[in-house]
Amino acid sequence: MRWLFVPLFLLLLLSRAGADPRAAVEGYQLQNGMGVLFKPTSQSGSVSIRLVVGVGFSDFSCQDRQLPHLMEHLFFSGLNGGDEADLEARMQALGGQWNAYTSEGDTTFVIEAPAATQRQVLDLLLEVLTRTRLDTAKIAATKQVLVREDGGHYSHLQRFLDHQNTSRPGQEQLAVELGLACTERPEVAQLTQAQLEKLRSDWYVPSNMTLIVVGDLDPRLPAYLNRTFGSLPDHTTPERRELPSMKGPAAAMRTLNTGLFGEGAVVHWIYPEPEEADGAALDLLQAYLSDLLYSELRVHHGLSYGPWSERAAYANQGFLSLNADIAREDQDATVQAMRQLLDNIREHGLDPARFARIQRVARAQLAWSTPSNASLADYYWGALGDYDGERFPNEDRRLAQVSLQQANAAARELFKGDGYLRIERPLLDDDMVYPLGAAAALLLLAPLGFALLRVRRRDDKTA
Q: CA 412: distance to chain centroid?
């Protein structure tokens, strides 16, 4: 392990001199296969730690999809007979704070801590991973936490609405229609302790973990990790599930109900990304479209205060969307303005001056933004798939290499179809409240009036 001290020391010197680009890290594997990434920075006194475990929602069927999420929460349920509050108090005593997140592809533990206690914080994390005991009471209590996180009990009405394809947000709804996402909200009631123990045994092994430490690094960290995390036993993980592919067809246009009454709506015009499209070209195209939507829908037409474009992914399929929050009476005008915008790109391509400006801004942001330890750690977490064993991609070079011709080719391929229009809005506008209220009052009062009339007639006959 001594050879690690030289490059680590050099990285520390470079970071102090301000010559440490984001792409440069010190990465290696412990003897048991666990990945380690170090990034010294000039921000003294603190570290950001990410432990990324390669298991997520997509490794399980729709029925068991919540297993890794439930396991993540159980790791915070307490140690040695203590509860969650006792565990949190131990972390606070070290001056740190922590959380964890489960995504489609991984479960990640996120820790911010003082540099002085970084090894003690890692001790506590290791203790949580290896000594957390599962029992019926803990599992039942944690299941209730997940139910509340997901918005409460999954009612028969909500299940019915989900099957009608009208109750989800726009992009998620399209993913369901295309076979890329589950048709029902995953539940936790049926998950068992045996399943959780198997998940932990199968997936929480060193060769399926990567530890990222960014900030004021303790020079003794490599030796410490070799002695602690490096002693964990390893074995081969199960084969990961094959991700679904688009099955289509999906409806070209669909209105999604977001409530009973309201004056607002959200328009999503969604396009599947081409399989071989260049990621940097799509990033710049997405930024270009956000700028164009702002100019057209807000400034020129006054239809939306904050229109935006975004990229998202479900399974192995990426999507790029144009989005606008609008008044519901402006729906047709907004769709028409978006259609004209897209037709202009199809016919004339991207505006060279706007594209050059967007590209320049995107590159400048890399230069003038000063990432914190936390944002750097999050970047490495999100970009682990692009790490080549020595460096992360040079983002500035990646953006600079995209030509206008490449961006136009990506736009033509992306927009060659009609895409999918999803419009979120309440079932009725607010103006319908009074007519419906009057109708309801009439329905309630009519029987009462009829009954009073019958009583009066009976009294008249008696008299």
A: 28
